[in-house]
Every structure is written in structure tokens, then in C-alpha cells.
């Protein structure tokens, strides 16, 4: 395949947290809480000319059968505190935080992200997520949850309200005083009044227009309702598909929905997440990957991952034996709490796992290893660079959000060995040229004029 390409690759970096993919047992593994881990990952991503650093969020300690989930690395510091700290040790890297629209209010969300955008010089991004489970919600309010049908209603009203607050200051609302040289606000600056099913709020927003005009909005949606919401509102959407042709089908669908919502196809970027394993040869990389998988998916881990589908206690089953022949019990109280459930049809998923196990002659643990990985990038640096470039050129995505099983130093190998090859292909910047995250992502400039900053 030709190494010439005009479509630029977007790269995000994430720091692995509370799941079994993180090799916490590795002698080189660090903390998921210490600032040094966040700083190292962010600095490494910026050295590799990545577009942004992405921080996921866990709002509740996960449980199994009412007990703390001992398969997880527990603990998640506050998103805004981490990202604001990273703004001080980076210069170009976007700073994307996952914040729940169900449990937070528009005024606080707007103020926090606008502040982060000012502190970082225009590098803030909000990953909008929703929640409807009472387990998470009880940390926030009595009753604690929304009906599943209402979560996107609240999310859309929340996002619209936040944008209205961001837009309540125009770039012309700060006027320079000729005598003092200081900026003064116009009398109506920041005024807002918002009424809807979820909110009835009014007042004045206290943060002037931020450097990007609005922080970047990220979202993930797989259901038809979620896809419509993301296509109409997001600047980038996280894709769950890491393999062609299903990734290309998702890509075309989201772009078409964006056009139907009155937007241009390029107004929204599609980004799957991926891990990677590199080797000097293909065989070496594949053997390293198999070894990592065997360490990540212990017998206990395999049983717990299947318990989330079966919604039953499977601890009596042998991980090296067959997949359970009993049916899932979706009507029972959830045995696993606090983990995102990705399988819409429990019975169909259980049936598929049995079929795969029988066809490939796999044990319970082996079928989990075989079926639960989301398309890692495995190969030599040249093979991984070729795969990324080819995948993006084939419109499987606009880039990737990359993470490593090893925190925090795992990303170093990708930056040292793969990034130069992508730069040689001309698909990844050699230097940052934009001044904001929107610039670097190639998103429309929504500023009507150059924003000013209060002094």
C-alpha cells in the first residue's frame, strides 16, 4: 500500500484505570491515583503530538454480591482537579474529562469546563455521559436514578443549557477601559434564563467567553437514540468498533445522521479506543499479546465477566471447564454493580459464547480471552502504523484513543516506535500548529472573533 495519505490521524491517550485490562501486578506498574502517573502519560502523549489526553470516570466503587469488587483497582480522583493540574505541565495537549450529565447541574458544569478552557488556553473537552442506575445515583440524591428513557432527555437539556451559559458571554462583552487598560463587562454580559422539563434556572454566568468559544464535546452512543444524540451534538464520538467492515458501517451511519441534523460530515470525528502490543517481529508481538491476555484474564476474572452476562453466581464453575449451560437470569437483582453493561441481549450473548466455545474447542476462560478483547493493535511498529493509517483512510474512524496495559509508562513505546513512522507517512503532525484543541482536531471555528481574556 502506498505510504501517501492526506487524511490526518487523530490520536488520544487514556490512562488505564478500574478494570482488569490494567496489569497492576507488573513490576513496572505505577499508581492510578498518584499525580506522577497522570503527568507522565500526558507529557508522553504531548511528546508524541497526540491531540488529547482522556480521563474516564468512576462514580461508585463497584460491587459483586454486595461486596467491594476485588478485581478492580479502586479509587478515582476528581476529574477537574487532575485536568487542571495537567494544564500546568503541558502546553498543547487537549484535556478531556468524562463528567456525568445525570448527576451534575448545568451551571457548575459550564463554569468548570469554561474555567478549564481558560486555564489551559483553549484545550478543554467534555465527554458527556449519562446514567440511569440507582446504584450509582444513590451517591448523589434520594431515589438516585432516572428512567432509562429519560436519560438522553436530561442529557440533551443539560448540554443545551451548558452551551447557552457558555454563549451568554460573546467575544464583545469585555470592553477595554482606555484609562486603566483593564477589561470591563457590558451590563448584560452573562445573562441567562433557561426553562425546560429538567431545569428552570436564571441568573448571570460568571466566566467570560473561553478561548475555544466552547470546549469540545465528546460522546459515546451505540443505540439509535444515542447515535442521534451524538450526531446532533458531539464534536467527536467514541466508536465501540475496532474492526472493518462494522467500523466503516458505524462511521457512515454517524456521518449520515450528522448531515440529517444539519451538520457537515467533518463536523464530527469518530474515534475507537484500542490497546497495543509491539514486538520486533510479528511472532514476538503475538506471543507477548497472548501472555498479557493470560495474565489479565485469570480464572476468577473470567467467571466475573460471565457473571455480568448471566447475572448469576458462577463461582462454583470451573474456569477451565465448559461455558455454563444454564440460562441467564435478567430478572434477578444485579450481581455486579457499577460496571457498564455492554450486552443488550443476555440470552443471545450466552448462546453465542457457547457456540464459539464448541466450534473452537475452548474452555470457559479461553472463550472469555477469545471474545472479550476490543481489537488490540498487535504487531511490529511498521505493521501497527500501517494498520492505523489504513483503517483511517478506509473510513473506519478518524483516529484512535490509545492506552496501554502498563501504567504509566506503556505509552512510551508507542510514541518512540510508532509515532515516527506515522509522521514519515505524513498522517501525523510533526509539530502542533493550532492554538486550541478545536484547531488541532480540525473542527469548525465557532468563534466570531478572537476571544479576549479578562485581566
Automatic annotation (TrEMBL):
It is an enzyme of class 1 (oxidoreductase). GO terms for molecular function: monooxygenase activity. The keyword Flavoprotein applies. Keywords: Flavoprotein, FMN, Monooxygenase, Oxidoreductase. Gene3D superfamilies: Luciferase-like domain (3.20.20.30). Its EC number is 1.14.-.-. Residues 29-393 form the Luciferase-like domain. Belongs to the NtaA/SnaA/DszA monooxygenase family. This is NtaA/DmoA family FMN-dependent monooxygenase.
Amino acid at each position: 500500500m502506498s505510504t501517501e495519505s492526506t487524511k490526518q490521524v487523530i490520536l488520544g491517550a487514556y490512562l488505564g484505570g478500574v478494570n482488569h485490562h490494567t496489569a497492576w501486578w507488573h513490576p513496572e506498574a505505577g499508581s492510578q491515583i498518584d499525580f506522577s502517573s497522570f503527568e507522565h502519560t500526558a507529557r508522553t502523549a504531548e511528546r508524541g503530538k497526540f491531540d488529547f489526553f482522556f480521563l474516564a470516570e468512576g462514580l461508585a466503587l463497584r460491587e459483586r454480591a454486595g461486596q467491594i469488587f476485588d478485581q478492580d483497582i479502586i479509587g478515582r480522583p476528581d476529574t477537574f482537579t487532575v485536568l487542571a493540574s495537567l494544564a500546568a505541565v503541558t502546553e498543547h495537549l487537549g484535556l478531556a474529562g468524562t463528567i456525568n450529565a445525570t448527576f451534575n447541574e448545568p451551571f457548575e458544569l459550564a463554569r468548570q469546563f469554561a474555567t478549564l478552557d481558560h486555564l489551559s488556553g483553549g484545550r478543554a473537552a467534555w465527554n458527556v455521559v449519562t446514567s440511569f442506575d440507582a446504584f450509582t445515583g444513590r451517591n448523589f440524591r434520594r431515589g438516585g436514578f432516572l428512567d432509562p428513557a429519560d436519560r438522553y432527555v436530561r442529557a440533551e437539556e443539560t448540554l443545551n443549557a451548558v452551551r447557552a451559559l457558555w454563549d451568554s458571554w460573546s467575544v464583545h462583552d469585555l470592553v477595554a477601559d482606555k484609562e486603566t487598560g483593564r477589561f470591563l463587562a457590558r451590563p448584560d454580559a452573562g445573562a441567562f434564563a433557561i426553562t425546560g422539563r429538567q431545569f428552570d434556572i436564571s441568573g448571570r454566568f460568571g466566566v467570560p467567553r473561553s478561548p475555544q468559544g466552547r470546549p469540545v464535546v465528546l460522546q459515546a452512543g451505540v443505540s439509535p437514540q444515542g447515535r442521534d444524540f451524538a450526531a446532533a451534538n458531539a464534536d467527536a464520538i467514541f466508536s465501540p468498533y475496532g474492526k472493518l467492515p462494522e467500523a466503516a458501517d458505524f462511521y457512515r451511519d454517524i456521518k449520515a445522521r450528522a448531515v440529517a441534523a444539519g451538520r457537515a460530515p467533518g463536523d464530527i470525528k469518530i474515534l475507537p479506543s484500542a490497546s497495543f502490543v509491539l514486538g520486533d517481529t510479528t511472532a514476538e508481538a503475538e506471543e507477548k499479546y497472548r501472555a498479557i491476555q493470560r495474565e489479565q484474564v485469570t480464572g476468577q476474572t473470567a467467571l466475573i465477566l460471565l457473571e455480568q452476562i448471566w447475572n448469576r453466581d458462577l463461582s462454583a464453575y470451573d474456569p477451565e471447564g465448559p461455558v455454563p449451560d444454564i440460562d441467564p437470569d435478567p430478572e434477578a437483582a444485579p450481581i455486579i454493580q457499577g460496571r457498564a453493561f455492554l450486552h443488550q441481549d443476555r440470552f443471545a450473548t450466552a448462546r453465542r459464547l457457547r457456540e464459539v466455545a464448541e466450534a473452537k474447542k475452548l474452555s470457559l476462560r479461553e472463550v472469555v480471552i477469545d471474545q472479550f478483547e476490543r481489537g488490540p493493535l498487535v504487531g511490529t511498529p511498521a505493521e501497527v502504523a500501517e494498520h492505523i493509517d489504513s483503517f483511517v483512510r478506509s473510513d473506519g474512524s478518524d483516529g484512535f484513543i490509545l492506552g496501554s496495559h502498563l501504567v504509566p509508562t506503556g505509552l512510551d513505546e508507542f510514541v518512540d516506535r510508532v509515532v515516527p513512522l506515522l509522521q514519515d507517512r505524513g498522517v501525523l503532525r510533526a509539530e502542533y500548529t493550532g492554538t486550541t484543541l478545536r484547531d488541532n482536531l480540525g473542527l469548525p471555528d465557532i468563534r466570531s472573533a478572537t476571544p479576549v481574556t479578562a485581566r
